[in-house]
Amino acid sequence: MRSKSCRRLVGVDLRRRLLLLPVLAILAIVLAGCGKEIGRIEFDHVGDGRAEITINADKAVDFWTDLDLKKEEKVSLAESIMGDEEVGLSYAVVVYQDGEPVQELTCDPLDVSSFALSSKIKFDISVGATHSFKYNGKMRCSAAVSYTGDLVVEATLAPVDTGDGSRVEMPDSFKLSKADLVIKEQ
Fold first, then answer.
1. For residue 148, which of 61, 62, 38, 55 has the smallest C-alpha distance?
2. What whole-number distance in Å separates Cα of residue 39 and Cα of residue 54?
3. pTM of the model as a whole
4. CB atoms < 10 A from the CB of 87, how many?
């Protein structure tokens, strides 16, 4: 027969384990929500890319970005007001099945809904403002393809006018190190 102190010790250990179960369950759900990477189009500058993927029809396809971008803001308030340009980045994504386009999407790497074990980082430098965006985030962009098999995903990364979505020249203030388009299956 066990002593009282031994039973208390076993009881405490069991309670700790029982309290840990909900935490582990929540962690498993969160990690499962990130999806499985099934393709990646690597970008270190604006341009075009392509990936071949295999999907299941019962799975959603989400688009993530693995981004490392520095954006220098105008130095003075007057320059900021007079040069009223707002430039962002955009992926133009086309999903092909058997050589035919089945879905076209526009994804904004600066508009993400969640992050994978990372967060936005912003630095302000005293001479002006430099904003650094470095994260792996889920964009508000997904595809529903009712097909099981091989697909081709083509993407164009380009700077765009945030007002009307038209393509513009890449500003000198943008320093792009990485902007991979990550394709995940739920």
1. 55
2. 9
3. 0.72
4. 16
Query: What are phi and psi for residue 77, nearest 5 degrees?
Result: -65, -40
3-state secondary structure the chain: CCCHHHHHHHHHHHHHHHHHHHHHHHHHHHHHCCCEEEEEECCCCCEEEEEEEEECCCCCEEEEEEEEEEEECCCCHHHHHHCCCCEEEEEEEEEEECCEEEEEEEECCCCEEEECCCCCCCCCCCCCCEEEEEEEEEEEEEECCCCCEEEEEEEEEEEEECCCCCECCCCCCEEEEEEEEEEEEC
Query: Cβ contacts of residue 166 below 8 Å, gap of 6+?
Result: 160
Render pLDDT for 58-99 as a digit per residue (tens, 0 to 9): 788 999 999 888 877 665 444 444 444 588 899 999 999 999
